Amino acid sequence: xxxxxxxxxxxxxxxxxxxxxxxxxxxxxxxxxxxxxxxxxxxxxxxxxxxxxxxxxxxxxxxxxxxxxxxxxxxxxxxxxxxxxxxxxxxxxxxxxxxxxxxxxxxxxxxxxxxxxxxxxxxxxxxxxxxxxxxxxxxxxxxxxxxxxxxxxxxxxxxxxxxxxxxxxxxxxxxxxxxxxxxxx
Length: 185
Fold this sequence. Notes:
Layout: E1 2-10, E2 15-23, E3 45-46, H1 57-61, H2 64-67, E4 72-73, H3 82-87, H4 113-119, E5 127-132, H5 138-150, E6 155-160, H6 166-179
Parallel strand pairs: 3-4, 5-6
Antiparallel strand pairs: 1-2
C-alpha cells in the first residue's frame, strides 16, 4: 500500500495544509495485506482529524491500513468552526467553547447543517453518528440527533462506552467501513 503525503494550499481554508493518502497496491497481495481489485477506481473515504491533530493522525493512531484496501480519510467526533480557524489557524481553542455550537443565537443558512440537509431533498447524504458516552461532546451529539430526527433526517447512530480518544475511533472506524455501501473488493 502506498503512503502519500501532500502539502498544498487550500482555498477553503485559506492557508497551506497537508493530506495523507493510503492508496492500495493493484494486483498481488503482500504478506498479511490483501491486494485491491484491479478494475476501476477504489472508493474514497475522507477521515478528518480533530482540532488538535494533523493529517497523519489516522495512520499513526489507528490500524486503518489493516481495515481497508482503498484510499481513506473521516471524523467520528467533534465540531470545528472552519471559518474562525481559517482566520486564526494557530490560536488554541478551549474545548468548552465547542458546546456553543448549539447556542441560542441564529445560525446563518450557509452554516446550518441540519437546514442544509432539509433543503437537499432526496439528495441527502447518509449520516452515521458515533460518539462515546464518556466523550465531552456526547450531549452535543444527542442534541444533533434530536434536531435531525425532528426534521426527518435519517441518521445511523452508534453510541456506547468510550471517550474522545483514538482507542474509541479506531474501533468505530471498523463499524463505519462495514456500514458504508462499498462494492465488494
